[in-house]
Design brief:
With 305 residues, the protein is α+β, with helices and mostly antiparallel strands. The protein folds into three domains: 80 residues, Uridine Diphospho-n-acetylenolpyruvylglucosamine Reductase, domain 2 (2-Layer Sandwich); 128 residues, Uridine Diphospho-n-acetylenolpyruvylglucosamine Reductase, domain 3; 82 residues, UDP-N-acetylenolpyruvoylglucosamine reductase, C-terminal domain (Uridine Diphospho-n-acetylenolpyruvylglucosamine Reductase, domain 1, Alpha-Beta Complex). 29% of the residues lie in helices and 26% in strands. The strands form six sheets. It has a five-stranded antiparallel beta sheet with strand order 6-7-13-11-12. Strands 1-2-5-3 form a four-stranded mixed beta sheet. A hairpin with a 2-residue loop joins strand 11 and strand 12. The two termini are 40 Å apart.
């Protein structure tokens, strides 16, 4: 039997028309920035995601996993190798006295929070303004308004090299916007997660979500962005440091440090990743010089830089 000539031929043989080549990534990111992926594969269920990832591990093909495309900056040169788009979106509600919700990792967190509200279930109101997916939230311990993933998560199902495994929030080693996954201490992909909920009323949960959304709208800019650029340093806020360094409103090309909130960079159409990167370096350098603080990125740089 003839051997398959290229690794991509193996993917075509196993996955068929799920495999695409030279796909522009900008439309799949919240910042609307980024070049081409050499190979692009979409997964529509958690089982399909597991099958694709196992195949890529077996073929020793490195890959980048995309969900909501927030908290990332994709290079203008794009991503070599494989990008897997996670579209696994099943949602199941459980229990009456002690309710919970089991969700696949491609579900958008803000959509889930609103779905819970429509059923009068409380506990995830803080997530109603979180732009990314459940997978990204479990990976990076996403949070807002005093809540975070680690405080709400009961368990997550991960695909590791041993197969599908259940991890508790404690086992995921959570810290501020980090976990064993983000620190690359465990080679794994998030397949699904279960969150604890509380019985409430539709009105009560909806009002809380509306308050959070109004606050977010008043304090954070509209438009295409990646979310918060930098982690808040202990006892301070990245946005405050950037503002007091006099950097709000600074532009490089079509990229701007928001005049409304210094920790958000806005894409004013056709912005290059290189322009955002130049702003990142300018902010880090200026804040270090003026305030003596080294700002650490909250977003991740993806692709070939």
């Amino acid at each position: 039997m003839a051997t398959l000539a290229r690794p991509i031929d193996v993917l075509y043989a196993k996955l068929g028309d799920k495999v695409k080549e030279n796909v522009l990534l900008a439309p799949y990111t919240s910042a609307r920035i980024g070049g081409l992926a050499d190979i692009f594969i979409s997964a529509d269920t958690a089982s399909e995601l597991a099958r694709i990832v196992k195949l890529l591990w077996k073929q020793e093909m490195p890959f980048t996993l995309l969900g909501g495309g927030s908290n990332i900056l994709v290079s203008d040169r794009g991503v070599r190798g494989v990008v897997v788009m996670n579209r696994a979106k099943a949602v199941k509600f459980h229990g009456e006295d002690q309710p919970s919700v089991l969700v696949e990792s491609g579900v958008v967190f803000s959509n889930l929070a609103n779905r819970c509200a429509s059923k009068g279930l409380a506990g995830l109101e803080w997530a109603a303004t979180v732009p990314g997916t459940i997978g990204g939230a479990v990976y990076g311990n996403a949070g807002a308004f005093g809540g975070d993933t680690s405080g709400s998560l009961m368990r997550a199902e991960l695909l590791t090299e041993n197969g599908r495994e259940i991890f508790t929030a404690e086992q995921l080693g959570y810290g501020y916007r980090t976990s064993i996954l983000k620190r690359h201490e465990l080679k794994a992909v998030v397949l699904s997660a279960e969150f604890a909920l509380k019985n409430s009323t539709r009105e009560e949960v909806t009002v809380k979500i509306q308050q959070f959304s109004a606050h977010r709208k008043a304090t954070q800019p509209p438009g295409a962005s990646m979310g918060s650029m930098f982690k808040n340093p202990p006892g301070d806020y990245a946005g405050r440091l950037i503002e007091s360094a006099g950097l709000k409103g600074t532009r490089v090309g079509n990229a701007e440090i928001s005049p409304l909130h210094g920790n958000f960079f806005i894409n004013h159409a056709n912005t290059k990743a290189a322009d955002i990167r130049a702003l990142i370096q300018l902010v880090q350098k200026t804040v270090k010089e003026k305030q003596g603080v080294e700002l650490e990125l909250e977003i991740e740089l993806i692709g070939e830089w």
